[in-house]
Amino acid sequence: MTVTDVRANTVDGAWFAEVRELARDRDAVLLAHNYQLPEIQDVAHHTGDSLALSRIAAESSASTIVFCGVHFMAETAKILAPDKTVLIPDARAGCSLADSITADELRSWKAEHPGAVVVSYVNTTAAVKSETDICCTSSNAVEVVASIPADREVLFLPDQFLGAHVRRTLNRQNMHVWAGECHVHAGINGAELTAQATAHPDAELFVHPECGCATSALYLAGSGAVPADRVKILSTGGMLDAARASRATEVLVATEVGMLHQLRRAAPEIDFRAVNERASCRYMKMITPEALLRSLREGTDEVHVDPELAARGRAAVQRMIAIGRPGGAE
Ligand code: SF4
Fold it and tell me: What class of enzyme is it (predicted)?
C-alpha cells in the first residue's frame, strides 16, 4: 500500500482522493508551505519553504501550479514560471511582512541612498521585487550581503529582525534596515522565550531569524543563561535538517505553529513545543480544504503578474536561487 493509499483511507479519504483526482485532471502540481494546515500539507505533492517550492514550481513539468501559501509566494512562482497557470486557493491570503513596504516607498528610499544595493527578503510583492537587485532567504541573507563590496551601501528590507541578525553577524555599518515586521513572528517575544527556556532546561531552542525573540535568543546564549549550543537560529528548512540530526528529547520552536507538523513527521521521537502556541498566521490558514477543492474545480484564484514587472523581478529572484541552499526561505 502506498503512502497515498494510506492517506486516502483516512477520515478525509474522500476529500484527499477528490483533490488528487482533480489535480490530475488539471495537470496540476500541488505545493504547500510549511505553515499550511496539516491536511493541506498532507495532500500536497510537495511541502516546503517558499524557496524550495519556488524551485519546484520552476522545474515542474505540470502546466498548472496550485500554490497553497500566501500571495507573494504564488507571485514568485508565476515570476519564475510565466508560461504556467498559477492558482492560489484564496487570493486574500496576504502577508503582513510583504505589506510593510510598497514599491513607491522603496523608490523613495532608493532616492535617499543613490548607488545603494537593494537586498529584499523573499517575502515581498512582485512590484517590490522589480525594484530589487537581489532577493535573499533567511539562510543566505548573510552570504548575500557579504557578497556586496564593502564600500557599497546596502538597503535591506523588509524584515527588521532578519536585518538586525545580518548586520550583527557581519558588523556592517553601511547597511540600512527597513522597519518592517511580521505580526506573527513579532508576537514571539523574548519574555516568552526566556520563560519557556527556564521551564524546559534541557530543551534545545529552534528560532526563526524573523522572530522578535531572535535577539533575545542570542542574548540568552551569549549571557550563559542558556548554553550556546542549545540555541539554533534556523530557517524553516534548516529546522527540519536540525530535527533529523538532533539527539534532544525536547525542542522549543519559535516560529509559526504550522511548522510543528513537519517537525513531528521528521523526528517523531522528539517532543516539539511551540514557544508561543498562538503564533498562527491567519493568512496561511485561509487556504482551507474547501478552498483548495473550489480552486481545483473552478480554476480560482488565478495569479497574474505584469510581464514587465515579472521580467525585472526575475533576475533578483534567480540570483537568490543561485545562492540559496535548498530549504532556505521562510
Ligand atoms: S507568518 Fe508572517 S511572514 Fe509568514 S506569511 Fe504569515 S504574515 Fe507573512
Answer: transferase
